Every structure is written in structure tokens, then in C-alpha cells.
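User: Hello, can you help with two protein structures?

Assistant: Certainly.
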Amino acid sequence: MTPRSFLLTPELADYVRASSEPPDPVVTDLLAETAAMADRGEAPPTFQIAPEQGTFMQLLTAALGARTAIEIGTFTGFSALCLARGLPADGRLLCLDRSEEWTAVARRYWEAAGVADRIELRLGEALDLLRALPVEETFDLAFVDADKGGYPAYVDELHPRMTPNGVVLLDNMLRQGRVLDPQTDDDRVLVALNEALATDPRWETVLLPLADGLTLLRKR
């Protein structure tokens, strides 16, 4: 099943996609292979971002003029593919993930899309890998779509590593609407984070009702 915003009916989701730039064959094949993996129980279906979110992220990356980006949580590589396509030819994207199996799929499609030379993949625990990076203003853009309990730490560790006006994107910030009635520890972590970010002087913050909720943070 193609992921969509829980705020949209299937019909509206189809309309949104029909009114946006269509996916090319590489993206179509990647989404199809990931969906097949989910159908076989080899991957969680909720890990995949919606196609329109990927299109938005690619457009945003290009519009910001980002040259260096970091992704925390890569899965089968669709979001990284979109970010890499939004970078200039000499841009660089660093991906942090723990799964060699899922990122092997990603590597194949990055090669097929001709962006593999822009992407470096490091495997391990994301927070450890992030903390091992120099505490320098390095990244123009960051995308976080990993373990939800780790989001507050990721935000804190990213801040000194973002360039001035750098943008951080946080995925799944509406938790399928459960932010209004938290059911799990992860829900409660993100509810608390949403409240904290709204008044955090380090960031200019907006939570968009895109897909499962996408927060944009601009480093002040």
C-alpha cells in the first residue's frame, strides 16, 4: 500500500499526487519494492514516507540551496534519494541507519538514480554516530525519521552542527492524531517535544499537517 496522510481520504490522496510532479521510474520501483517487502512482513509499512512528502522534501532542499545534509533513519532510501536529488551535483548527504538489510535496497536505487556519489551511509546507533561528528556548523538541512524516543536528543545534538538558518525536518510529529490522546511512550515523548519546540528560543518552529506531521525547525 502506498503511504498517505492519515488526514486524507484515499480519493484526496490520489488527487494530491495527481496534482504534484509524478514519480519517475526509479522512485516508482523503489516504492513498489518497499511495499512488497512490507506485504511479506520483511519491513514495517509505517516506515515509508508518503510520495508527496518526498517530492516536497526534494523541492525544499533545492529551494533552500542546501549543499550539505544529514538524514537520521534511512530505511530503504526513498527520503535520502529525494534529498540527494535536491542537492547540487557536488552536494553531500550523510545517512545514519542501523539496518544493513534495508539500506542495501537503498544503495541499489541510489545507484540507479545516479546520486550514489552524493551519499555517504554510516551504519550503527544513530545517536552514537551523530555524537561522534565534529561539533561544527556543518549541515544546511537535516531529516529525522528514526526512533521517536530519541528525537529530543537528536534535536539537541543537531543544533550545534547546523549552519545558521539551517533547517531540521522531524517526521511523524502528529502520530496519526494520537498527539491529542497519547497511547504510547513514543507518543508522549513527541507531545512533550512539540510543546517544548514551540517556545524553544534556538529554533523558529512550524508543525505542518503533511503526511503524519512534519515539523520544520530553522536555526535562529
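That covers the first. Now for the second protein you mentioned:
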Amino acid sequence: MTTTKLAVCIAAALALAGCESMTETQRRTAIGTGVGAAAGAAVGAAVSGSSGARTGAVLGAAAGGIGTYVWTKRMEDQKRAMEQATQGTGVGVTQTADNQLKLDIPSDISFDVNRADIKPGFRPVLDRFAQTLVANPVTTVRIVGHTDSSGTDAINDPLSVNRAASARQYLASRGVDASRVAIDGRGSREPSADNGTPAGRARNRRVEIFVAEAAAQR
């Protein structure tokens, strides 16, 4: 069996073994372990040949299972709470590949064009979000603001940061320690849709919020 096939088999076995008897958190950790094994084998093979692939698979499995972040029951509960709170709003609630909770918040409920003050429709989402953060104090938060391509970078860059700052300030007013919340602004540099259409520009005016629980805190 080639090292590449070995890595794939390790990944599949770890991801699927015992799935029916696992809890949701255990299943997600197993999948992460399998993916880590495959990635580690690929890197090891590129660097050191077949022996490196075998070593990389083992190290990758460990990294996938431990990782920088963990997906705990607390994180799963927070995800479900936000799914319920945002139902019908257009807000996307997902688990990222590296075990962060991501909220993708479109402009139609978050911010008006060229404005950084929070719209009324965004407040109930942030209210419920703040409650989940207070209930899970070991997590950290990162808020990233984005704009469409209208205007110059001199306008868009500070606007995107100000939108993230407004969201952090609102969360702080609802009892979330502001030191837990990092902010960033990407201006128009990371569009999620075509800036050539009004609908695409509206999708690009957005805020992304990431919640993470460090592995060492489990």
C-alpha cells in the first residue's frame, strides 16, 4: 500500500470508526484526527519520502485530534443557540474546519452603506450572542469587518474596522469582557461575491464573527 493510500485509510478509519456510538463532540474530534493524519502524511512524504509520510501521519493525527482549537459540548450548545436565534435572518452559523464557530452576518441586517452604527435588526442577534459568550467564558472572539469595492481603500479600510469595533462595543455593553474580543477590518480585499452587481456588493458588506475555544482549556 502506498503512503498516500495509507494516509487516506487512516483518515477514513479514524473518522468513521465507532460513529454510531459516538457523541457529536467525539465524532467531530475523530474526523479532525483523520484529516490531520492525511495532511501529516502528505507533508511528511513531500519532505522525507515514505518514512516521512508514516511519521507525518502519526503526528498529523495528533494535531488533528488536539489542534489549536477544540469543539466541545459548550461550543456545540452555542452553535445550536445561535442557529435558533438567527433562524430566518440570513445569518450563517457554521463550524469551521479548525473548530471555530463562525457567524456570517449580511449587510441587510447589520450595517447601512458607508455606516458603522449597528442597525436595529442586528441587535437581537448580538443580544443572544452575548448571552452565549457570557455562558462560555473560556472562549475568545474575533470580529472581522468587510466592505464592497465602492470607494477607495482610504474609506473602506477604516470603515471595515469601525464596523467590527461597533459590534465589539455592543457586546461589551451586554456584559462581554472586551478583552476577549479582537477586531480586524479587511476593507474590500476579501469579497465573497461579485462586486459587479448590486446583490454581490450587498453580500460583500458583511461582518464575520469567529468564536474559538483553545485546546489547552478543555
